[in-house]
């Protein structure tokens, strides 16, 4: 597994967060909830510095409309920035946007969870929805990326404190699988990462 974190673990810009995370994880998910001139300006100014960090990157596409998804996707493609995967929510008209894009995967939400040949598996969403792992298994579905966080009191993006999320992860774990800890607090992220690593070591030893 390649363990990563989001570009928001404390207040600051993409680069400010990534610079902190460089010594913590190997992968950063750049978050874009929308796309406007301010956001474009920030990422444009910081892209050179992001390239210089010892990190790999994925991108979470905007969640408001597919027009902004296309703008973000085109921005990174035009810049030839090394994005390992783009994650897309099943928002209206998602089918037309994702068609033919081998580097875009569809994320399951709590409210809607269509299956697609390339998926970003959000384990927290799956637990909250009550989906069994079998839903995502099969030759017709490839898990490109996993989003992992603790689930507590019907809310995800919490610190990981027990094994229920990790047992789910065991089914899909493989060499090179990108696992993003979607926890938006640096201290909680560190605790959760340590727990994932401890679990992985136990699992590798057959415990």
Automatic annotation (TrEMBL):
Source superkingdom: Bacteria
UniProt protein name: Xylose isomerase-like TIM barrel domain-containing protein
Organism of derivation: bacterium (Candidatus Ratteibacteria) CG23_combo_of_CG06-09_8_20_14_all_48_7
Organism taxonomic ancestry: Bacteria, Candidatus Ratteibacteria
């Amino acid at each position: 597994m390649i363990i990563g974190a989001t570009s928001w673990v404390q207040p600051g810009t993409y680069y400010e967060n990534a610079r902190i995370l460089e010594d913590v994880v190997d992968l950063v998910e750049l978050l874009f909830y929308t796309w406007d001139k301010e956001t474009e300006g920030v990422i444009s100014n910081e892209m050179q510095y992001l390239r210089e960090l010892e990190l790999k990157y994925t991108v979470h596409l905007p969640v408001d409309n597919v027009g902004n998804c296309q703008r973000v996707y085109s921005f990174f493609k035009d810049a030839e920035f090394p994005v390992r995967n783009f994650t897309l929510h099943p928002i209206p008209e998602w089918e037309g946007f994702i068609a033919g894009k081998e580097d875009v995967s569809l994320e399951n939400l709590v409210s809607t969870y269509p299956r697609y040949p390339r998926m970003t598996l959000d384990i927290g969403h799956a637990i909250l929805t009550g989906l069994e792992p079998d839903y995502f298994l099969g030759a017709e579905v490839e898990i490109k990326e996993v989003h992992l966080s603790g689930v507590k009191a019907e809310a995800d993006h919490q610190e990981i404190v027990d094994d229920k999320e990790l047992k789910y992860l065991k089914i899909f774990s493989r060499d090179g699988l990108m696992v993003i800890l979607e926890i938006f607090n640096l201290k909680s992220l560190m605790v959760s990462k340590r727990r994932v690593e401890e679990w992985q070591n136990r699992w590798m030893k057959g415990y």
